[in-house]
Specification:
Layout lengths: L3 H6 L9 H8 L3 E5 L4 E3 L4 E2 L1 E7 L1 E8 L2 E8 L4 E2 L8 E2 L3 E5 L6 E7 H10 L3 H4 L10 E2 L2 E2 H15 L13 E5 L3 H25 L8 H29 L2 E5 L2 E8 L4 E8 L3 E7 L3 H6 L1 E8 L5 E8 L1 H35 L5 E4 L15 H9 L3 E4 L2 E4 L3 H7 L1 H19 L5 H28 L1 E4 L3 E8 L4 E8 L3 E8 L2 H6 L1 E8 L6 E7 L1 H43 L13 H8 L1
Antiparallel strand pairs: 1-10, 1-20, 2-9, 3-8, 4-7, 4-10, 5-6, 5-9, 11-12, 13-14, 14-15, 15-16, 16-26, 17-18, 18-19, 21-22, 22-23, 23-24, 24-25, 26-27, 27-28
Helix pairs in contact: 6-7, 9-15, 11-13, 12-13
């Protein structure tokens, strides 16, 4: 039997992927062997995996109102569910295993929860995926082929973006736009009129002023100054327009607003399931003429209302949000169905009609980056974001450390200059100067080490349950700790407050929690939008685990109820709830 690695190596979907990456990917793929007739996936169940048929056959059928509306066979080498790796969806058909030529049905399964972390490290893999569609598969998870391909391209671009805004691993960008270009054009009209006026007015007064007079000379340099003013004004509005954008993903809506006057960036985020209403506004004749307007989102988040203002094609955003809201509701129902089935099967101890084929894949090719060595270990200690053992650790921006170390560096520089001048003018000898300055340099070095460690010891931690603010004094002289449970977080705000913060992209993340004086503030952290997204992702994962645990307990109660009912029925103790059907004799008696 072909190994998983050899199968993937020859599969058209993965043929362009580097062998080292493919070996790592093969280690994440699980291989199952199914008995003949086993249901592999149920229609309307949650779908979050890629399926690749290794041997045997699969039969898929879609049933609507008791009628088979679509069916097809999958042969060895066929696959389905590539899009489910990036965004969970709903199984469109019930898929059944069919043994063929005495060969067992073997299926390779790659789950989204395994693939996305792999993809976040190996960004280039997504460019090497080669999805192939046959003529019958005109739609993939609700996306036409060209839209799905474009979604993959946008995801690849997103993974290479700067850390200004982090899109979660299982998010696909549905809509990404700035404010309308026509809106920018309307805002630049006063600039164009001002420039035109500056160019025309000097010619109107040129002949009316005597040569050599003050007003005559002013006609030549004043237009230049005014032109420079209008150019700067226009560039200001252009730059302000360029740095504001709106994003709709399959999970969230994001509004990033850059206030150029205050050099402040604010990021507002709400989940799709928090959207309560969507209103499209075109308040003026110009907005209707150039087809731009405002989409008003009323949400259940702490922001209340999020405005996508002055964007082009606002009705398109409304339609996308309507489709995504329905999709989220459908996906929640499919997850409910999946959990009910799993709970009943677990409670009644159903015998599984498949087994996991335990093949180990040798991914021995370990790059040098996996073994960073001494220097790499030291550098890892001072990275701004460290993810290990399910915990994310953040440091303040390194500019904070440099600001703290400015005094010892400045004093050291002044002492060095004074010492050089003293030796240069024969006030002291080199030996005397070195003997005096050496202890001072040593103390300044200790001061630098203290400041650096003080910066490194101030941590912000995020794990699956808590968010923690740790303020430590270097070398164990003291520590203060403040923490809050993720489930108590009510809102998360991210912003960069000033010019320096905006240029170097660091700022504040305010975590609002239930209770008085219990908020936690991440101060001077790099890429506050990334930290905000990390927190939201952890909250979402916690809520998902809590929902699954609660639903599992509830479904277990249903299973117990079914079990008790079955016992009572088998003992003949269940009374009829409806009258028995009438026989022919009973109908005759009623007629008489």
């Amino acid at each position: 039997m072909t190994s998983k690695l050899d199968f993937l190596k020859n599969h058209p979907l993965f043929k362009k992927i580097d062998l080292e990456d493919l070996a790592e990917l093969a280690a994440l793929v699980q291989e199952y062997e199914y008995r003949d007739g086993t249901v592999v996936a149920y229609q309307r169940d949650a779908a979050d995996s890629l399926f690749m048929l290794k041997s045997g056959r699969l039969y898929a059928k879609t049933v609507e109102r008791g009628i088979v509306t679509h069916s097809r066979h999958y042969l060895p080498g066929d696959y389905f569910g590539v899009e489910w790796l990036f965004a969970p969806s709903v199984q469109p058909a019930t898929i059944q295993a069919r043994a063929h030529d005495d060969r067992p049905v073997r299926l390779l399964v790659l789950r989204s929860r395994d693939f996305l972390p792999f993809l976040s490290v190996n960004h280039d893999v997504i460019d090497d995926l080669e999805p192939v569609y046959d003529a019958t598969d005109t739609q993939v998870a609700g996306f036409p082929e060209e839209q799905y391909a474009e979604a993959l391209k946008m995801k690849a671009k997103r993974d290479r973006r700067s850390n200004t805004m982090k899109i979660l691993p299982d998010e696909l960008i549905e809509f990404l736009a700035r404010r309308s270009g026509w809106y920018l054009f309307v805002r630049l009209i006063p600039v164009f009129l001002g420039l035109l006026l500056v160019m025309v007015l000097p010619f109107a007064f040129l002949t009316s002023q005597p040569p050599g007079s003050f007003l005559y000379n002013m006609q030549f340099w004043c237009p230049g100054v005014l032109s420079l003013f209008f150019v700067v004004w226009g560039l200001f509005r252009l730059f302000d327009w360029t740095n504001d954008y709106f994003i709709v993903t399959n999970r969230r809506v994001i509004h990033r607003e850059f206030n150029l006057r205050a050099f402040r960036v604010d990021i507002k985020i709400a989940r799709i399931d928090q959207i309560q209403s969507v209103t499209v506004l075109k308040p003026s004749l110009i907005a209707n003429l150039f087809n731009f307007g405002t989409v008003k989102l009323t949400t259940a988040s702490q922001y209340g209302v999020i405005l996508f203002d002055n964007i082009g094609q606002p009705k398109q955003v409304s339609q996308i949000l309507e489709r995504l809201t329905k999709r989220v509701s459908t996906l929640d129902s499919s997850r409910e169905q999946t959990l009910v089935r799993q709970s009943i099967e677990t409670y009644f101890g159903f015998t599984q009609s498949y087994e996991l084929v335990g093949e180990e894949v040798d991914s021995t090719a370990v790059s040098e980056s996996d073994n960073p060595g001494c220097l790499g270990s030291i550098m890892n200690r001072y990275r701004w974001r460290i993810e290990e053992d399910g915990m994310i650790i953040y440091h303040k921006h390194f500019l904070v450390a440099l600001a703290a170390m400015a005094w010892p560096l400045l004093i050291g520089g002044v002492i060095t200059v004074l010492g050089y001048l003293a030796v240069r003018f024969d006030l002291v000898t080199w030996q005397l100067g070195g003997g005096v300055l050496s202890p001072i340099y040593f103390l300044l070095f200790l001061w630098l080490v203290w400041d650096l460690e003080d910066w490194r010891n101030d941590l912000y931690q995020l794990d699956g349950r808590f968010i923690v603010d740790i303020d430590r004094t270097p070398f164990g002289f003291g520590e203060s700790r403040k923490q809050a449970q993720l489930q108590n977080i009510q809102n998360v705000k991210a912003y960069t407050p000033g010019l320096i913060h905006t240029i170097f992209n660091y700022g504040f993340v305010e975590v609002e929690t239930a209770g008085v004086d219990s908020n936690i503030v991440f101060e001077h952290v790099p890429f506050p939008g990334v930290v905000q997204s990390d927190i939201f992702q952890q909250i979402e994962e916690l809520k998902q685990r809590q929902r699954e645990a609660e639903e599992t307990r509830r479904h277990k109660s249903f299973a117990v109820l079914l079990d008790v009912y079955k016992q009572e029925e088998e003992q003949g103790r269940m009374p009829r709830r409806t009258p028995p059907p009438l026989s022919w004799e009973d109908e005759g008696e009623e007629g008489d």
